[in-house]
Amino acid sequence: MTSEPTTVDTPLKKLVGERTAKALASHLDLHTAGDLIYHFPRRYDERGEHTDIRSLDVGEQVTVLAQVQRTAVRPMRQRRGNLLEVTVGDGSGGVLTLTFFGNQAWRERDLRPGRWGLFAGKVTEFRGKRQLNGPEYVLLGEGGDGEAAANEEVEEFAGALIPVYPAAAAVPTWVIARCVRVVLDTFTPPDDPLPATVRATRNLVDIGAALREIHRPTTKEALYKARRRLKWDEAFAVQLTLVQRKHRAAARPAKARPAKAGGLLDAFDARLPYELTPGQQTVGREVAADLATAHPMHRLLQGEVGSGKTVVALRAMLQVVDAGGQAALLAPTEVLAAQHYRGVLELLGPLARAGELGAADDATRVELVTGSLGAAARRRALAEVAEGRAGIVLGTHALLYEGVDFHDLGLVVVDEQHRFGVEQRDALRSKADQPPHVLVMTATPIPRTVAMTVYGDLEVSTLSQLPQGRSPIASHVVPAAEKPAFLDRAWRRVREEVSAGHQAYVVCPRIGEGPVSDEEPPREDDNGRRPPLAVTEVAPLLAEGPLHGLRIGVLHGRLPADEKDAVMRAFAAGDLDVLVATTVIEVGVNVPNATVMIVLDADRFGVSQLHQLRGRVGRGSAAGLCLLVTEAMEGSSSRERLDAVASTTDGFKLAELDLEQRREGDVLGATQSGRRSHLRLLSLLRDTDLIRDARAEAIELVEEDPELARHPALAASVAALVDEERAEYLEKG
């Protein structure tokens, strides 16, 4: 151990010993004193207050503060020795059984009724009772026997507020608390990077006090102030990054692409068979104005499934073609790219057939570039693109490959941005001589605070109205385990719709045997649940059983591209009654005659995924029906999530629910980059005002000092919280 001052860079092995440091590094990715100091408690328990055991989910790794109620020893049935069962309670009526195998009489003496302790383990269920098998624990108060309550560790919990840390099975919360105490004893906080004027204006405590109080709070008020300061640091770092990047982007030159009277765009508007919604007209004017400037447009277009984003994007592409440039649309799947291609050809008609008989005078060409193009077709398409004859180019990530060259790329449209990596999106933009204009589209509505925090350097446009002719969608949960007759009725409902001349989707979470793909979740469940239902297994069962006699097709990501396209074309043409598919149909698939969707194992999908999926029905004049089939029991969190999806088609409400249930750090690309999130305290839902204030301060500071040259400590702090990889993720949307 050392008595030297400890800084954020001091290796943990110098402070807590080799063995503990190794455990912290391998299980929690904590290597330095700074890593540990910024590993904040997840929550704080108070003796006498309950943890709400009833809310624990099976399979969850938990730490609960509870009181021993009773103990019982009984012989084991299958092998020699005794089993110790300890019942603990949280004061709210919730109880948990702790089970210890083998002859451990000393534990019975240790775990006397009335003792309070922290108990850590994985929640399992046996005969309807929640339990922890062989949990780690530490008792509070006077030390007990053996390893359970080493006095050194119990010291951590002498105060009223007991920190509970994000932990691992091999490194429980009390070990982390002990290590934090060792570090804090000699810790010298860094110079405060936050400008004194901001601290004074916003009434924020200094960084040293915040870091001490977050771990060892003296009062609830001191803890509140510490958390507020540290949340501010996170919000300020993100906002400074976004504001700086927006500032730099504004300084970059781009080629202006102003509208041209009497050109392709005007001809397209004249042949549209319907009127644009007021929302489409407003957003269209915003986009047109952006394209006419000499700075690159960087706009996010969000709108519900079916709100008409594609028409807005096509009008922007035509404006660029009118101005002598080319436009490229990047789609996440070949199915969607091919569908966009057919849809654009249909909308443009003779305007898309330059060089052909019957083409309009000022027509352009539309090309599709995907990985499955044959060699001859690919050579022809690439020549059209490179020589500028193809004004509009649609494709998948195949557009990004070397050998795909544009004559004058002026606009990049990215459909469903969350399906692409940062590098993929950037590769397409780099194919232009000057920065192209960028329009990012998403059908997943984004709560205001997320837009402010993740897309703060994009202008945001929202389409909230649905075009005329779109029909309402009714959604219902089908509890297959509790009421099997409801599932039978669901299949009869499909037959009724087909008899009425309509079509149906059946969605499964998994493809089937073979390697797991990106579109299916892991097969094994930690808690022994059966594997998710698979397309290749469900389709034959339906064909032989409840949907016997109907024309059934199968669609998933492992099919060859030409087969996928053939299946989709057959379904769109009405040659198939039922399409059994994975989430490959989640985005953009448009078959107006499909009126009913059954989602099997619906609890295995996320909220936004379910919302996207159900948008595939109700796209014509007949009402849509979405049935969410689940074995999740009433009262479980999975079932509550499905009930919420069924209760509303308001995408913004569902986006907030989705955000509540996901780790908010994922929003900043932690999952995408495979790294820990640096948003440890900030809540995008609950800290709206703080985020707004941080943005205001960031704008003011960047206007005065664009590169933070006069604030080097702040610049370093921002770099630590929002590293370059995450900053690029934020920038590119």
Automatic annotation (TrEMBL):
SMART domains: DEXDc, HELICc. One of its GO terms (molecular function) is ATP binding. Pfam families: DEAD, Helicase_C, RecG_dom3_C, RecG_wedge. Residues 510-531 are annotated as: Disordered. The keyword DNA damage applies. It comes from the Bacteria. Signal peptide: none annotated. GO terms for biological process: DNA repair. Residues 486-660 form the Helicase C-terminal domain. The keyword Thylakoid does not apply. Keywords: ATP-binding, DNA damage, DNA repair, DNA-binding, Helicase, Hydrolase, Nucleotide-binding. Residues 290-463 form the Helicase ATP-binding domain. PANTHER family: ATP-DEPENDENT DNA HELICASE HOMOLOG RECG, CHLOROPLASTIC. This is Probable DNA 3'-5' helicase RecG.
